[in-house]
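Still learning. Any example?
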Amino acid sequence: MSVLCLITNPADPALTKTLVDKVHREVGGELNWLTQGTACEIIKPKSTDPAADARELLAGQPIDAALVPLANRRKKLLIADMDSTMINEECIDELADALGLKDQVADITARAMNGELDFGEALETRVALLKGLSLKAMEEVRRERITLAPGGRVLVHTMKAYGAYTALISGGFTYFADHFAKRIGFDEAVANVLETDGDVLTGTVTKPIVDKATKLVRLETLLAEKQIPTAQSLAVGDGANDLPMLRGAGLGVALHAKPAVAEQARVRIDHGDLTALLYLQGYGDEDFVR
């Protein structure tokens, strides 16, 4: 049995009663509003492919349609990517900008995140270009250029309030991951370590590199350590290095993802913010911890 979720961005709610009724008539099932104008669920839809039916009816509207299992809906483990997922930026691109190299580095980042380049090799190439960057400049980037993605704190604090463990795991850097994990409220953070010589970067990163394999292993390790069934885990990310983690979780969500990732993910959110992950689990606005 399944649930069809219709979700829009709370900053610009576009989910009208007229649109929802049109989908409901087509797919059948039991309709329940989670937040008026922003999210609803249709429990046990009757049509053969409810999500495809909904997308066809909602074509052109900024509304996500996702089909999730009814069983084990509320998750006990959240494992999340950082760059362009829990924060809005790619930290390495912003560090490169401080050296006037953003375009060069951002092009490599985009290709790596779309699965066109080996992640580890691409990371080492980009980090080498950061050689000589001062820790003071890094602090300025962290303070002035990095912003939290909408809905992230609500997602983490709500899941923790209902008993979930939360982990931030990033192919980026501990300098950012440790800081923003604490600000958002994650229980732990895992990321790469930029090596320094005094107060400047050496252009190298500590091995082994945190990559797609590391992310999947951390998911599997946490499931075993916390004795959480796979079906009760949720993973979210946007890049190719997140795909194994997304596939390995009970529910893997591609959030505002690169095209190659969105195409392969079981669930994709293109319009909603991070609170969409709560709606997928059946939480309503009154359940949110803000």
